[in-house]
């Protein structure tokens, strides 16, 4: 008998399809509440409520944020104070053991809420991201921007001059220059203060470290986002002027010489049957190929989008191609390409062999070379025929 009583008293979460007066209170349409299972089964059969997959949770405790990991859950969640967040129903059960610190959808009438700072869905907390990284890293942080936006933040970015165009047409971010007083009112994230190099040596992608340290380890937004307009697409088509040949975009340079491959001239000679577009502003092949146009950032993205295949090192062009899901061959030396491109579905990695160890060294430079002045021996180990083979497999 005791076991039957215990079963009858089990509670489950339900989402109300209509406003409903129950023995446990009055609930508005769309709200979520935990009610006895036996009553819930009857209401579900009548179509009054249903069992939701996700539940909106608002943490209203005293701390700025609350971290928790539900039993049996692989993900650690972070709930920012007064900021609504959707969580899987199975993990919300754990939170319900802390009554008074959390609100679940609209189950508590607004006139009974003592905390007046609860955010409505239309309101957003302002945050300013400051970052002085290179072009590729600045584009990679767009996954952070999307994550913050989806968690009810209004995001503004402050990057090096000339990089703002990477965010053009991005609906989740503003590049508006803030006055000193406006900036003082923002919650500031200094992305450069998050240490990423040691984590990358342990093969942890930079964006994963950013998300973890910002409290969004469970975010699905890890791939860069780059938005191209119809006008930019049309310009790229007119510039390339397809003639039936395969269009191959090649980026011959990177932010540092250590990421630059030394056999691009040999490769281009082998690709004479195809239409080759050199993507760099200043190419190492300038004496070999006449480059009749220098692209700005917006034009670069449009041209990459129009190409059939991109061949590049660890550069901005790689991350734009990854954001646009373009077929790409990436040449990696000291950086681990399989980690770097783990979110790029159509990327083929050619990994150079380290002369001192099995795996890429990232920034250890065990070969005692100057990463900022010369090409790494591991990158030199990639042969022209390796790139041609990878290209044929894509085709």
Characterization of the model:
The protein has about 400 residues and is an alpha/beta fold. It folds into 3 domains: about 1-60 and about 85-110, no CATH class; about 125-215, no CATH class; about 230-395, Rossmann fold (3-Layer(aba) Sandwich), CATH 3.40.50.2000. About 30% of the residues lie in helices and about 20% in strands. The chain contains 15 helices and 18 strands. The protein has helices spanning about 1-10, 35-45, 90-95, 135-140, 140-150, 180-185, 195-200, 205-215, 230-240, 265-270, 295-305, 315-325, 335-340, 375-380, 385-395, and strands at about 10-15, 20, 25, 30-35, 50, 55-60, 65-70, 75-80, 85-90, 100-105, 125-130, 155-160, 185-190, 245-250, 275-280, 310-315, 330, 345-350. The strands form 6 sheets. A 5-stranded parallel sheet has the order 15-14-16-17-18, with helices on both faces. The protein has a 3-stranded antiparallel sheet with strand order 4-1-5. β17, α13 and β18 form a beta-alpha-beta unit. The longest helix has 11 residues, at about 230-240. It starts with a helix and ends with a helix. Mean pLDDT is about 85; it is low at about 1-10 and about 105-120.
